[in-house]
Amino acid sequence: MAEIPIHVLAVLAATLVAFIIGGLWYSPLLFGSAWMRAAGLTEAQVNAGNKARIFGFSFVFLLVMALCLERFLAAPEVTLATGSLYGFLTGFGWLFFATGVITLFEQRPWSYLLVNGGYWVVALTAMGAILGGWR
Q1: Cα 69–Cα 56–Cα 84 angle in degrees, nearest 5
Q2: Residue 2, pLDDT score
Q3: How many CA atoms lie within 13 A of 129 on its CB side?
Q4: In which region does residue 45 sit, left (phi positive, over 0), alpha (psi from -120 to 50) or beta (all else)?
Q5: What 8-state DSSP symbol labels residue 79?
Q6: How far is the C-alpha of 92 from the C-alpha of 124, rounded, in Å?
Q7: How many CB atoms are located within 10 Å of the residue 21 CB?
């Protein structure tokens, strides 16, 4: 079986798009207030966080996720449509419900699952679309 090279630009683009989606998703424009309430955080606590550490590690973690997803989608027959589907299934079937388990054990409200799990569904669908469509 021939080794399929890593599509570095697609991985970087998928990482950046998921990062941007997260910035919008957790902003006051979308679900930032709902997320803070569900997570039990105040605006002061969020603002006191080490931004370089939080955003730096978040980008690296998303990069690792994009790289792993790229390997799952590396087959030549994967298209934008199948990449989107597989990204959606990864986000919904794995990450949404993994977040659901954590939500239950942490005794968080359902809004916590909907905000955080919803982000993963949208982000992984977008990542899958980029990785599947950029050939």
Answers
A1: 25
A2: 65
A3: 9
A4: alpha
A5: -
A6: 9
A7: 19
User: Does the predicted TM-score (pTM) go above 0.85?
Assistant: yes
The 10s digit of each residue's pLDDT in 47-95 is 999 999 999 999 999 999 999 999 999 999 999 999 999 999 999 999 9
CB atoms within 10 A of CB 9: 10
Identify whether the C-beta of residue 60 lies closer than 8 Å to the C-beta of residue 16: no
Alpha carbon distance 123, 25 (integer Å): 10
Counting every residue written for the chain, the total comes to 135
SS (H, E, C) 8-41: HHHHHHHHHHHHHHHHHHCCCCCCHHHHHHHHCC
Structural tokens at position 126 = 């977008």
Which residue intervals of the chain are DSSP H helices? 8-25, 32-39, 43-48, 51-72, 80-89, 97-105, 110-133
Residue 79 CA to residue 98 CA, distance in Å, equals: 27
